[in-house]
Amino acid sequence: MSIDTKKLKALLQWYKQSLGEDLIAVLVVNRDGLIMDSLIGSSENSLNEEIIGGVSALVEPVLSRITEEFSSGSFGTGTFDTEDYRFIFCESGPEAVLVTVLDSLSGVDEVFPYAYLAAEKISRIFDGRTVSPVIPKLVINSGGSQIQRKVDRVQQVKVKSKEYAFKLILGGDGAVGKTSMVHRYVENVFAKDYKSTIGTSIMKKECSFKELESTVRFVIWDLAGQAQFKRVRMSYLANAEAGILVYDVTNRESFENIDINWYSEIMKASPNIVLILVGNKIDLKEERVVSTEEGEALSQKLKLTYLETSAKTGENINDAFRMLALQIIKKYIETQEV
Ligand code: G3D
Ligand code: MG
Predict the structure, then answer these.
(1) What is the Å distance from ligand 1's center to 73 Cα?
(2) What is the pTM of this model?
(3) Residue range of the domain that includes 45
């Protein structure tokens, strides 16, 4: 099969132009993870060709999952995050996958439409159908998030006394309600149809305290349940400043695993993290097997604040996050004063 490589290059060039400085690299890979074409972005983050090498090492394992999960061979997409990068995988016909590498703090909402469009065009190039490599400017109404993102980035770097930006993670067994808690707390979750099974969702939320004249900006990382392979989990847990340990009060094993697994694993990955302990699903009164006293005893042992919540009814969900924010402020102020 002969591919119009010139057209593919031109298309990638257009794609790069559409995404602007958030783009670190774009790759077209086949189903075995082999790079068929690539382009480096123009921002200062796109240092050199080494990125492509590093990226392809990451792409390979994710790609095999995608191939398994996206049986359709059409335009399924997935996101995947590491410490430094944000990946968007977009199927491009049966042959190829378009891999977009963005800055880790970039929003994906604005990128998705372009990625879909580019992937569709690439699939046409691969089938030898006629297609223009030009990617039109799309009007995406996302309410000034371009500017907002710049602000976020600046704040991540400059954590000033009254503006905090902290990575928040959730630890706990599958199905205890971590994702439900986050969704309860963050109203405007980007509800896209990408398969969350392979990635991490990143959401932002501010928590303001009038009395303290303080705002805590959380960057909440929610690791999708099935993405439990160790490599991902370590980078997920690392460099976090805030964390919620969650167990399900109707599931004793999930409670025991807090002490046995989650607490130590998180402390190892992020030694300076501020944690709270949460017993979730208290609405299921009949099925409850872990008592409040047991929860409190564990929290005393681990020296953590304890709360009981229901992501279903919303009970105490806001308070859990606010409690965490308060503890962070407290810790931050203490550190400042030393
Ligand atoms: P996880 O992210 O920790 O893996 P999820 O957990 O948030 O995906 O939740 C797992 C299941 O528990 C979901 O049910 C969810 O609706 C349910 N759940 C979460 N929190 C609560 C709660 O407080 N009360 C009750 N009753 N259920 C809860 P499904 O059926 O969708 O898998
Ligand atoms: Mg989840």
Answers:
(1) 30
(2) 0.57
(3) 5-127
